[in-house]
């Protein structure tokens, strides 16, 4: 399927205070796209947040919150900042057009609209967005295991730290390190080691299955499980599930001095982000506990952190 074919689909939010204009745009787009609509700015922001359209057609002049203000808020919120906006407006001067583009709009269509032009502009923006989304997914994914990579982990940890901090909710982190993986590679070969890392990642995804959980490859054979809004008890539950998964998978590790199958050690940290703490504090606590779990014999988890009562 080409990029253009993919772009034919997609969800478009039409925002206009006049039902007549919404009907015209709906008529132009309904054969190729799923069309949502809103008749004022606050409703548009709500739909953008909750239904994640791929593109927004936005009327510049509306009573109350105008299109420029809507555009500014869309850009300011991480969950809507990636949605492209096309301004649709009766204002036609170069100044109006410049103002719309300056506000962050991707394109500008003048009223009265021509259906063929609207369709073509929408297709172009959706194509660009699809390409950008695909590139972003590539940049944020670990090529071997398919889980998030370190860059994605760092971004999400920062975002969740701020979000949970505002809400007074905990953030839990499990750092997971496969036991004696060097010996595994030495015994079974690097390719078998690669295949085992893939299996291991699958086990982690099963153990941390809420939509907000993030499994990431943190280093070579070290992984991180980010668990927003989870306390020590919840995080321990995830660690326990991972141990059970590994037990059931029973991947032989004949070279391990501590077990006959593949095992892992984990450090679990849990904090409610405060004014004087930073995400690195959470990592540091989890890392120290992981080290402790290794030192105490491996195949176990250790729990700690300021707000980590399990
Ligand atoms: N097959 C494979 N091995 C990897 C990959 N990334 C890292 N490793 C290996 O993981 C091993 C990590 O070894 P160490 O850091 O010494 O740790 P360990 O042998 O697991 O020992 P402990 O952590 O102390 O239990 C090294 O041999 C790396 O080569 C990878 O992508 N594929």
TrEMBL record:
Molecular function (GO) terms for this protein are:
diguanylate cyclase activity
Q: Which UniProt keywords apply?
A: Phosphoprotein
Per its UniProt record, what CDD domains does this chain match? GGDEF (cd01949)
Query: What Pfam families is this protein classified in?
Result: GGDEF (PF00990), Response_reg (PF00072)
EC numbers, comma separated: 2.7.7.65
SUPFAM superfamilies cross-referenced by the UniProt entry: CheY-like, Nucleotide cyclase
Pinpoint the Response regulatory domain residues: 11-126
Q: Which Gene3D superfamilies match?
A: 3.30.70.270, 3.40.50.2300
The protein, known as: diguanylate cyclase
Organism placement in taxonomy: Bacteria, Pseudomonadati, Pseudomonadota, Betaproteobacteria, Burkholderiales
């Amino acid at each position: 399927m080409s990029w253009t074919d993919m772009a034919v689909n997609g969800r478009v939010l039409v925002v206009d205070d006049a039902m007549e204009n919404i009907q015209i745009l709906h008529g132009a787009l309904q054969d190729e796209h799923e069309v949502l609509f809103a008749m004022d700015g606050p409703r548009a922001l709500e739909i953008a947040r909750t239904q994640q359209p791929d593109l927004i057609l936005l009327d510049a002049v509306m009573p109350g919150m105008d299109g420029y203000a809507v555009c500014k808020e869309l850009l300011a919120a991480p969950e809507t900042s990636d949605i492209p906006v096309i301004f649709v407006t009766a204002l036609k001067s170069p100044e109006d057009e410049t103002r719309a583009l300056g506000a962050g709009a991707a394109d500008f269509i003048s009223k009265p609209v021509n259906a063929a032009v609207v369709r073509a502009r929408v297709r172009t923006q959706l194509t660009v967005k699809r390409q950008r989304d695909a590139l972003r997914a590539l940049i944020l994914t670990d090529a071997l295991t398919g889980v998030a990579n370190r860059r994605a982990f760092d971004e999400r940890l920062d975002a969740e730290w701020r979000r949970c901090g505002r809400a007074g909710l905990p953030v839990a982190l499990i750092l997971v390190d496969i036991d004696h993986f060097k010996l595994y590679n030495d015994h079974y070969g690097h390719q078998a080691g690669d295949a085992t890392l893939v299996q291991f990642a699958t086990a982690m995804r099963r153990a941390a299955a809420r939509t907000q959980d993030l499994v990431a490859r943190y280093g070579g054979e070290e992984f991180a499980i980010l668990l927003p809004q989870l306390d020590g008890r919840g995080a321990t539950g995830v660690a326990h599930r991972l141990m059970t998964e590994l037990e059931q998978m029973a991947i032989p590790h004949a070279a391990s001095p501590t077990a006959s199958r593949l095992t892992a050690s984990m450090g679990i940290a849990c904090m409610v982000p405060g004014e004087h703490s930073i995400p690195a504090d959470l990592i540091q606590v989890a890392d120290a506990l992981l080290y402790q779990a290794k030192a105490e014999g491996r195949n176990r988890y250790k729990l700690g952190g300021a707000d980590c009562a399990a």
